[in-house]
Amino acid sequence: MSKSMEREYVSVLDALKRRGNNLSGTWPERGEANRLEPDCWPTIQPRFKIPAGAKVFTIGSCFARNIENRSAAMGFQIPSVAATRNNYEFLDGGGLALDVYTPTAMLQELLWTKRILDRDDTPTGDDVLPLLLPVGRPDRFIDIHTRRDPGTGYSLEKQIQRRKIMYKINREAFFCDLAVITLGLIETWWDLESNQTIEFHPRMARHPQRDRFAFRRLNFEEAFRATERAISLLLEDPSRRILLTTSPVPIHQTFTEDDVIVANMFSKSVLRTVAGTIAEQHDRVDYFPSYEIVMLTKRAEVWTNDLIHVESAFVGQIMARVISHYVDDHQASAEYGEWVKFAELVQHAQFEEARPYYERLVGELNAATASTVYLTVAEYEMATGRIDDGRGHLSYAVENDENGALFNCLDYFRAARLYRALDEPGQVEPMFRKAAELCKNPVVMNAVISTVRSMHWEAEAGFLIKEAERLFPDDYTVLSTLAGHQHERGNMGEYHRLKQLAFAVGDEPPQLWAYTHELEKAGELDTAIELMLRSDERSTDPDIFRRLASLLMRQKQHELAAKIIDRRLDRVPGDASALGLKAIVCSARGRRAEALEVGIKALEAGTELVGVKPLVERLRRQVNLRRV
Predict the structure, then answer these.
(1) More confident of the two residues 431 and 87
(2) Is 12 helix (H, G, I), strand (E, B) or coil?
């Protein structure tokens, strides 16, 4: 049932009575239990409850993925976690392919899903094609409605397959008990041709139809209307409840002229107002203050090192708070919350602070306890000198992994590090292998390598780099990323080897352009030319073509340059740059009449090459002199 927005005036006496009844209505002062220090925990007044083990659907920014993982660990049915466990292309350090950041994008995904669900519950190629953008190669597309498609794209068949999995996940929005919506951004990109919100992709700037893409920041009314309509779709089922949040994760970059800090505060302020206004209007919608909890908690440990994402352990504490307020049977949630706090302290090597939690909880370990908990206990015990206890709990965690509780490859690396500390090298290699087995997709492999390197686990990173090259020898994105890791590690020989392997199987023109500059500075012009020749055969990127032709001319390889230019003109007749370059090459080869003719065409076509106009003028003077 929808409530009207609170607009009526409240009398003085009623307002004072309301203030008197609100025990949290005054800003707290410094002191004991002030709700602000060291962590911020606002008072929660839930208007509904959900049963333990309920089906929970989440949609929104990357913070929604944190909520999913923690909710699954607490025993809730999370369709997206189940669906992506064996479809790793949807996971990239938090599931970016599934993230939906803006209210308009969220509405579009739900409308797309609802239309198919109401029709025949079967997505087809015709449903997927309008979401795709061709990227210049035969049968290669990016989905401009999701994030982090590789620049080289996927085949149409692959994109349809991916969208079918996404549909399977998103249809659960209309069958769940609770929908958790996390609002993330108001900075949006649009496809003006379809009037649809899209996700920014670097390919758009170089696409022949780039004028169809544009940026706009949503205002309050636009963000409110889109969110309200999305929620109305979900509330068609009278039994469904909605928990609405604003993501505390800041925007990584802004496309406005503001400082990103200012742009982020503007964005979050609009979305927080949208969330609060909508929660006031619907009895079955509650606002949960995850944004306030994170932003007003004054501890550096809340954030990961990128100062963007929230530490997993702190997300666990937030979810424990959600469970304690919104779940009918939450007896286990208090204990879970303590385990989460214990894990956070161990993660940050605060072992003295973790000691009372350990002493209170270790006796509660049983067969139903997740293997990851046993692993954390083992880490604490070994760090505090309880070696035998740590060895026992580590063995139990690994031996009981058959149920898949240790499905995170980082857990295997944690186990390997403990075995290494126990001087049991025979157990280290199996843990490394199990970790690698979970990196079944190149996207996940790249994400995990980045994660372990950020944790300074260099042995683990080195192992995965070798495994990645072995498993994905033909994947440009993987090889290029591995090259970047080797560059950061100072292994320049491996950097150049992997970089050149990457460009042998595919390329992203801006990266290739930048790398050939590196080679040019190092005097490796022949290598640069070889790489660009391969690229020019595969793509029609104008920047690569111009750079290749220019380098060939500098090397006085005029015949090969002429061949490349003619191939370009066959592909793109009337290309002004190609005509200008052809005029210069013809002149260098002594074909002055042809150079003059082509140069005039280049100027008429609007070439921006600075040498063409003087060349044409000089050739005209020479022609006039011969006539005289």
Answers:
(1) 431
(2) helix
Which residues, 6+ apart, have CB-to-CB distance to 101 below 8 Å? 60, 61, 147, 184, 185, 199
The span from the CA of 602 to the CA of 315, in Å, is 60
Q: How high is the pLDDT of residue 288?
A: 93
**Proportion of the chain in helix, strand, coil states, percent, rounded to 5:** 60, 10, 30
Instruction: DSSP letter for 559, please.
Output: H
- 27 alpha carbon, distance to own chain's centre: 37
259-287 pLDDT, tens digit per residue, is 999 999 999 999 999 999 999 999 999 99
As to burial, measured by CB atoms within 10 angstroms (0-12 exposed, 13-18 middle, 19+ buried), residue 291 is buried
Nearest to 133 by CA among 152, 114, 105, 119: 152
> What domains appear along the chain, each with residue ranges and CATH number?
442-506 (1.25.40), 511-628 (1.25.40.10)
Average pLDDT over residues 565-581: 86
d(CA 291, CA 271): 11
Confidence tier at 228 by pLDDT (50, 70, 90) = very high
Read off the DSSP letter of residue 606. Answer: T
Is residue 249 classed as helix, strand or coil in its secondary structure?
coil
Helices H / strands E in the chain, number of each? 28, 9
**353 contact partners, CB below 8 Å, separation of at least 6:** 345
The burial of 355, by beta-carbon neighbours within 10 Å (0-12 exposed, 13-18 middle, 19 or more buried), is given as: middle
Whole-number mean pLDDT of the chain?
A: 83
Q: What is the largest CA-CA distance in the chain?
A: 107
DSSP 269-327: HHHHHHHHHHHHHBTTEEE--HHHHHHT---GGGB-TTSSSBPHHHHHHHHHHHHHHHB
The residue with tokens 């006496």 is 13
- The runs of H, that is alpha helices, within 171-298 are 203-206, 220-234, 260-281, 290-295
Element (H, E) at 477: helix 476-488
- Given a contact cutoff of 8 angstroms between Cβ atoms, the answer to whether 505 and 476 are in contact is yes
For residues 442-461, average pLDDT: 82
C-alpha to C-alpha distance for 482 and 271, rounded to whole angstroms: 38
Q: Which of 376, 414, 406 is nearest to 393 (CA)?
A: 376
User: 595: part of which helix (H) or strand (E)?
Assistant: helix 592-605
* Mean pLDDT computed over 85-97: 47
Show the tokens assigned to 530.
């070889």
pTM of the predicted protein model: 0.67
Q: Which has more pLDDT, 432 or 204?
A: 432
Tallying the residues shown for the chain, one arrives at: 628
How many Cα atoms sit within 13 Å of 474 on the Cβ side?
Answer: 0
Would you say residue 94 has pLDDT above 50?
A: no
Beta bridge partner(s), residue 55: 77
Name the residue among 436, 400, 434, 394 with its Cα closest to residue 415.
394
CB 556 within 8 A of CB 584: no
Cα–Cα distance measured from residue 579 to residue 597, given in angstroms and rounded to the nearest whole number: 10
Confidence check: pLDDT of 333 > 60 = no
3-state secondary structure of 23: coil
